[in-house]
């Protein structure tokens, strides 16, 4: 049976279907890990290998038979030990969802008997074979409200998801859940990169002399935001130029001529602003 405390909550359905195909074609390559149920005789509980276990469920539904699952029986001492074993087994998988990983670190942090924050994070990092910074950043990410974590849904297209780096930056910048959600949504809608997201955070939080704090802007802050604008604009312009068939793009529009004229005028205005900025940079 499934371990209800399984730290991994998200599974790619297509990946499971592919795994089921592979098992049917080539057989099971690696046994799952199980332990005896603490209360029910003859019942075994998964420790590691839930993707394989789910794939066998798909095979059962396809064939209307109960497939034989190869398993290695391990010894588990208590529920805490079970959770740790299950998590560290999943941690080796490349497709472990960051939100699940962060939640697991939080549980390990809470259950740790170490006395200080630094000692707790160090202990987890050592056991997980991760850096101190990695674990601490993921703990920050886990502190985000559910509405922000939902924006990291692995089932959504990548372009519509909040990135791990952006989530960490947001979590470290403010503990205001309303502001965290607003920044996250804007970062996704504007398809911001790391540097641009940091600039947005600065504007929204005032941490670098912008926005809500009312402090004066610093030249170094202005330059960082300006540089991120330049790099982001250059990157997007190259991507649109090299990756889009402009004519095909407009052929799908209801009013092709109007959209072409409107967008051309907008580009002319943008180019004018960029030329003015260009002249100012060259002027000194």
From TrEMBL:
It comes from the Bacteria. One of its GO terms (biological process) is chromosome segregation. The keyword Signal does not apply. InterPro entries: Chromosome_partition/occlusion, HTH_ParB/Spo0J, ParB/RepB/Spo0J, ParB/Sulfiredoxin_sf, ParB_N. Residues 1-96 form the ParB-like N-terminal domain. The keyword Ion transport does not apply. GO terms for cellular component: chromosome. One of its GO terms (molecular function) is DNA binding. Keywords: Chromosome partition. It holds the Pfam family ParB_N. PANTHER family: CHROMOSOME-PARTITIONING PROTEIN PARB-RELATED (PTHR33375). Belongs to the ParB family. NCBIfam families: parB_part (TIGR00180). This is ParB-like N-terminal domain-containing protein. It comes from Candidatus Kaiserbacteria bacterium RIFCSPHIGHO2_02_FULL_56_30.
């Amino acid at each position: 049976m499934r371990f209800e405390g399984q730290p991994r909550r998200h599974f790619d359905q297509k990946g499971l279907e592919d795994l089921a195909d592979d098992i049917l074609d080539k057989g099971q390559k690696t046994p799952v890990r199980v332990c005896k149920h603490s209360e029910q005789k003859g019942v075994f509980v998964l420790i590691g290998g839930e993707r394989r276990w789910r794939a066998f469920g798909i095979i059962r539904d396809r064939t209307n038979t109960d497939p034989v699952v190869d398993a290695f029986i391990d010894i588990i001492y208590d529920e805490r030990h079970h959770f740790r074993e299950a998590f560290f087994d999943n941690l080796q998988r490349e497709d472990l969802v960051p939100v699940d990983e962060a939640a697991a670190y939080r549980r390990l942090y809470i259950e740790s008997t170490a006395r200080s924050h630094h000692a707790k994070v160090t202990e987890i990092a050592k056991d997980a074979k991760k850096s101190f910074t990695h674990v601490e950043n993921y703990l920050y990410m886990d502190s985000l409200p559910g509405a922000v974590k939902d924006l990291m849904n692995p089932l959504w297209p990548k372009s519509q998801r909040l990135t791990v780096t952006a989530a960490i930056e947001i979590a470290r910048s403010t503990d205001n859940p309303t502001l965290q959600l607003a920044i996250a949504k804007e970062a996704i809608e504007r398809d911001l990169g790391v540097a641009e997201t940091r600039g947005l955070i600065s504007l929204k939080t005032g941490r670098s002399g912008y926005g809500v704090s009312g402090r004066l802007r610093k030249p170094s802050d202005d330059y960082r935001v300006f540089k991120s604008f330049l790099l982001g604009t250059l990157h997007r312009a190259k991507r649109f130029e090299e990756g889009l068939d402009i004519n095909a793009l407009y052929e799908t529009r209801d009013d092709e001529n109007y959209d072409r004229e409107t967008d051309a005028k907008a580009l002319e205005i943008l180019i004018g602003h960029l030329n003015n900025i260009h002249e100012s940079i060259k002027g000194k």
